Amino acid sequence: MRILHTSDWHLGKHLEGHSRLEEQEYILKSLTKTIKENDIDLVLIAGDIYDTSNPPAKAEKLFYNTIKDISEDGKRVVIAIAGNHDSPDRLSASRVLAYDHGIVLLGTLNDIPSVGKLGSHEIIDSGRGYIEVNINSEKAIIGLLPYPSEQRIKEVFKDVTDLESMQISYSEMVGKIFDEINQKYREDTINLAMSHLFVEGSITTDSERPIQIGGGLVVEGSKLPNKAQYIALGHLHRPQRVKKSETAFYSGSLLQYSSSEIGYSKGVYIIEAQSNEAPKISEVFLENIKPIEIWKCDTLEQSIKRCLDNNDRQTWAYLKIKLNQVLMQSEIKKLKELKPDLLSIMPIYDIEEELQNEPVDITKKNISQLFKEFYLSERGVNPKEDLLELFDEVVREAGDINEA
Ligand SMILES: [Mn+2]
């Protein structure tokens, strides 16, 4: 069986107010071509299909058109699960219609796919967290755990009355589901799993909405189903194999979604799997049609030239300019006209550099002076007089309280 693993499409996502839909459309066309050329039998989409729980109509249209095109009237099986950005109900709303096209859409663990026809293939068995499919006379058991939010996973264990007293952690709850999945796997089947979660020790970027804040929703690698031959994960936008695991991979996002994703290529994984054998895994890179760049310029003139020179190039750019005075509105307007794909213009004032280079003995400065310098280094301009007065007032009041 030839499987393709992708995730984190984030359809409808904006970058600093700019739509990425055109790029998403282009890359999905090219991905569909890759899928067809490589004779893929099964496509796994590991969550974050959309960027928000209420995606724009254009994003939904792009998703439906794409999966319909990929499945080629049910010739190929496509399975998509909800990520932390998706609304589970919205993603799976059309699931009943989708089976005919060979498509399985799963919002939560409570969605149990129906046994029966799946395009030209068949779901032979299903239950909480798994399906068994027959695709071109090869059988696969696929563990499926759509984004297990804390609330959704607790829901699963609501009958376990002494959950609180057992003090069972999030990682352990997820582990219990994966245990159930592990027990379904057989020697005569291709054994796979797919989920959308954060596995301990993985590398993050700036464009994921963290689900691991405070360490609460981190899953230990040892909890993943160890009998799975391949585990397709979503959430992290940098493609990577999970630390200490031979079988679990994040495919990464479809496009660069932040400037922290500049240094490496986006991709998908193709897995050639047979029962009872280690699968062959290869990475296919996705074209970077409109890269994000950071331009550092020493003067306004240099910035204007840079915008002019790159006007025709397909690129997004964060512009950083060294300045010793505030940028005029007319100058900002001019730069944006020359390069409409400027994501932001960040002035770097010389004063800021001076502040950074000079060791400061803060004990020798009063708090009002420190506030003024901090404001200047953050905003690039001096705080207004009334703001300074307000700050001093707050400091005075805090002082009064402390003394009281
Ligand atoms: Mn994501």
CATH class of the largest domain: Alpha Beta
State the helical fraction.
25-40%
What is the arithmetic mean of pLDDT? Answer: 90
CATH superfamily of the largest domain: Metallo-dependent phosphatases
Can you tell me the overall shape?
A: globular
- Give the CA-CA distance, first to last residue: 75 Å
Total of domains: 2
Spatial ordering of strands, largest sheet: 7-8-9-10-11-14-16-15
Strand count, sense and barrel status of the largest sheet are: 8 strands, mixed
Q: What class would the helix/strand composition place it in?
A: alpha/beta
Counted by DSSP, the helix tally is 12
| Unreliable segments of 5+ consecutive residues | none
Q: Which percent range describes the beta-strand content?
A: 25-35%
List the bound ligands: manganese (II) ion
**Tally of extended strands?**
21
Kindly summarize this structure in a few lines:
The chain has two domains: 2-285, 4-Layer Sandwich (Purple Acid Phosphatase, chain A, domain 2), CATH 3.60.21; 292-403, Rossmann fold, CATH 3.40.50. It is built from twelve helices and 21 strands.
Please explain how this structure is put together.
There is one protein chain. The protein is α/β, with parallel strands linked by helices. It has two domains: 2-285, Metallo-dependent phosphatases (Purple Acid Phosphatase, chain A, domain 2); 292-403, Rossmann fold (3-Layer(aba) Sandwich), CATH 3.40.50. Helices cover 31% and strands 25% of the residues. Helix 11 (367-379) crosses helix 12 (385-403). It is globular and about 75 Å long. Manganese (II) ion is lined by residues 8, 10, 48, 83, 85, 208, 235, 237.
